[in-house]
Design brief:
CATH class: Alpha Beta
Oligomer: single chain
Helix content: 10-25%
Strand order of the largest sheet: 1-2-3-6-7
Largest sheet: 5 strands, antiparallel
Bound molecules: the ligand O=CN(O)C[C@@H](CC1CCCC1)C(=O)N1NCCC[C@H]1C(=O)Nc1ccccn1, nickel (II) ion
Number of strands: 8
Structural class: alpha+beta
């Protein structure tokens, strides 16, 4: 199980490397990595377990963040209300954004990152809607359309596979600049 000590922090070159494609069928090592990446999110989103293991709760975790430069990330978007269904939960492997909306979206609170131990204020403009193509741990191909928060989370994770961190997208001169048709996401 990953703990905070296993999470690589900004400054480590692995976060600025282009990650390698994952080959199928998954090696035993990659199968375990996928399990561990998802387990981190599940445990961290359980308040009791989160506290017990001293984790920062997360909704996504990319392999480069645990020092593995591969195109794999877990995503667990919490259900909007108690007992509801998660809008998107999967381990995305070799993800490709096949189309993206012209309209941009950003989290009103800005973004953070488990690999960035500082607050970087500002809006992180991303595409409000994307069509995502990825493989799951069984090698099954998926093509899903995501919008708003799930779309933001997946773009944040895919960035980690392409040497990008959230603050790279923040406008240096005007961090809270926004074009008037940008969707502001709570
Ligand atoms: O690459 C992946 N990461 O760096 C983990 C990030 C991923 C999200 C950041 C913005 C979009 C995706 C993450 O989850 N966070 N960022 C740092 C601290 C907070 C935490 C978070 O948003 N937690 C959360 C939110 C809702 C419910 C439960 N927990
Ligand atoms: Ni991150």
């Amino acid at each position: 199980m990953f703990l905070m000590k296993d999470i690589v922090r900004d400054g480590d070159p692995v976060l600025r490397q282009e990650a390698a494609d994952v080959t199928f069928p998954l090696s035993a090592e990659d199968q375990q990595l996928a399990k561990d990446l998802m387990e981190y999110l599940v445990v961290s989103q359980d308040p009791e377990q989160c506290k017990k293991y001293g984790l920062r709760a997360g909704v996504g975790l990319a392999a480069p963040q645990v020092g593995v430069s591969k195109k794999m990330a877990s995503v667990l978007v919490p259900a909007p209300e108690e007992g509801g269904k998660s809008p998107f939960t999967d381990v995305i492997i070799n993800p490709v954004i096949v189309s993206e909306s012209v309209q941009m979206g950003a989290l009103t609170e800005g973004e953070g990152c488990l690999s960035v131990d500082r607050d970087v204020p500002g809006f992180v403009p991303r595409h409000d809607r994307i069509t995502l193509r990825y493989y799951d741990v069984n090698g099954e191909k998926h093509q899903v359309r995501l919008k708003n928060y799930p779309a933001i989370v997946c773009q944040h994770e895919i960035d980690h596979m392409h040497r990008t961190l959230f603050y790279d997208h923040i406008n240096k001169d005007e961090p809270f600049a926004r074009d008037d048709d940008m969707v502001m996401i709570e």
